[in-house]
């Protein structure tokens, strides 16, 4: 049976070009057995009509906070409660900002503030709006407040011939994400909270330059997805990557090592921590406030580096240490010796060691950025060598190992 069978979905349609796709979303949700009721913002009605949304949902469409008829019995509070989940599609920059700021000056924002139901947002906007610092801040705040996100994806923008990140997910993907949101937690990791880090960190030199590494986030994201599939409540703290947030996972986006540590700490306590991110060991000692200028005749600037916080060691030896701590070690030499030393030094239960040297033979592109991996699992019980496999398979096997370790623990 579909996870959406007989579920009541309140669909808030925001004022973006992608509103036309929300009409199809109504159909996709209903064909899986959901009952759909729509709220449309005033801006949304510039793009699609309440008549179309009403005909497709077979229900009244709500548009006005001060509607005498609907508000006789405080309709906005009823709308917020008489549903199993709220989906905002398209989630405009404006709606995200309103909810992040706690505003409630129209029907959509009042409903969002008054609800205690799970909220899923499908953002859609111009890539410049999506990458604006204000939108990034709002997204991070909303994720922290428990709002789930699906997309946006990359591609052509409908309105301008521009391309980039900001395209609303397809209706079928949004319907899948709603189903994942409402599926009863099942699986061996149901009820477990697991923090995962993924991707590189960016360490700023000045407002436009930074020091980074080649980590793509593929392995960490795959692990987060595999843990979520086993029922875990996964908090993924991701450095800057160009891959999509995994479905069914709460993703918190950060840039630097210091931000990553703070985000991890604010997600604790957790049952397990899996530290996959390639965190920069050092950062420039000074972050210059203005762009460092190239001046004729002057020598290139010297960059003094200082040590970054060690996230794995801080958490592994910390007071709020998760019951299970897993670290990753990307080594180019003395793989096993270095991993075994790291196990002790960092207070980890497992180190997943991968050889990122050029001649590791995994594939021509190497482990970082590639799709395959060959790892060794180092623990106090010894070393287990896993054969070369895809990063998804490594993730599934590691998730099973985590589930096995947590099976007997009641925290
Ligand atoms: C043609 C056009 C297309 C727009 N597309 C988007 C969009 O895709 N995403 C977005 O966040 N805002 C978009 N906007 C701006 C919003 O419509 C505007 O911020 C509006 O106030 C949003 O209201 P709402 O959040 O209440 O729906 C667009 C505006 C116009 C005129």
TrEMBL record:
Keywords: Decarboxylase, Flavoprotein, FMN, Ligase, Lyase, Magnesium, Metal-binding, Multifunctional enzyme. Residues 194-411 are annotated as: Phosphopantothenate--cysteine ligase. CTP binds at residues 281, 291, 309-312, 328, 342, 346. One of its GO terms (molecular function) is phosphopantothenoylcysteine decarboxylase activity. It comes from the Bacteria. Its cofactor is FMN; Mg(2+). Residues 189-404 form the DNA/pantothenate metabolism flavoprotein C-terminal domain. InterPro entries: CoaB-like_sf, CoaBC, DNA/pantothenate-metab_flavo_C, Flavin_trans-like, Flavoprotein. Pathway: Cofactor biosynthesis; coenzyme A biosynthesis; CoA from (R)-pantothenate: step 2/5; Cofactor biosynthesis; coenzyme A biosynthesis; CoA from (R)-pantothenate: step 3/5. Residues 1-193 are annotated as: Phosphopantothenoylcysteine decarboxylase. This is Coenzyme A biosynthesis bifunctional protein CoaBC. It comes from Mesorhizobium australicum. The gene is coaBC.
């Amino acid at each position: 049976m579909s996870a959406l069978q007989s579920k009541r979905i309140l669909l808030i349609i925001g004022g973006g070009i992608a509103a036309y796709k929300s009409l199809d979303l109504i159909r996709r949700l209903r064909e899986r057995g959901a009952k759909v009721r729509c709220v449309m913002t005033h801006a949304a009605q510039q793009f699609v009509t309440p008549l179309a949304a009403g005909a497709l949902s077979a229900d009244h469409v709500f548009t006005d906070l001060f509607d005498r008829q609907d508000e006789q019995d405080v309709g906005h509070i009823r709308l917020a409660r008489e549903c199993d989940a709220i989906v905002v599609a398209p989630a405009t920059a404006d709606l995200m900002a309103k909810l992040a700021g706690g505003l409630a000056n129209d029907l959509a924002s009042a409903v969002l503030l008054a609800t205690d139901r799970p909220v899923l947002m499908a953002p859609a906007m111009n890539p410049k709006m999506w990458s604006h610092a204000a939108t990034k801040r709002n997204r991070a705040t909303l994720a922290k407040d428990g709002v789930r996100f699906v997309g946006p994806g990359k591609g052509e923008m409908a309105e301008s011939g521009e391309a980039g990140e900001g395209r609303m997910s397809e209706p079928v993907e949004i319907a899948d994400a709603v189903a994942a949101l409402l599926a009863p937690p099942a699986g061996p990791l149901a009820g477990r909270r697991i923090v995962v880090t993924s991707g590189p960190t960016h360490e700023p030199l000045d407002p436009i330059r930074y020091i980074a590494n080649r980590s793509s986030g593929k392995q960490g994201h795959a692990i987060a997805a595999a843990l979520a599939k086993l029922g875990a409540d996964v908090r993924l703290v991701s450095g800057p990557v160009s891959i999509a947030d995994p479905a069914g996972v709460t993703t918190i986006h950060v840039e630097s090592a210091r931000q990553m540590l703070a985000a991890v700490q604010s997600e604790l306590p957790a049952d397990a921590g899996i530290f996959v991110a390639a965190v920069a060991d050092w950062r420039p000692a000074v972050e210059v406030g203005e762009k460092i200028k190239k001046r004729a005749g002057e020598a290139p600037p010297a960059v003094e580096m200082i040590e970054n916080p060690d996230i794995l060691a801080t958490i592994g030896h910390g007071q709020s240490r998760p019951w299970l701590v897993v670290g990753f070690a990307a080594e180019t030499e003395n793989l096993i010796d270095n991993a075994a030393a790291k196990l002790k030094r960092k207070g980890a239960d497992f180190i997943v060691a991968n050889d990122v040297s050029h001649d590791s033979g995994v594939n021509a592109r190497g482990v970082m950025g590639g799709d395959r991996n060959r790892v060794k699992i180092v623990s106090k019980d010894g070393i287990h060598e896993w054969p070369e496999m895809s990063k998804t398979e490594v993730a599934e096997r590691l998730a099973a190992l985590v589930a096995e370790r947590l099976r007997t623990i009641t925290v």
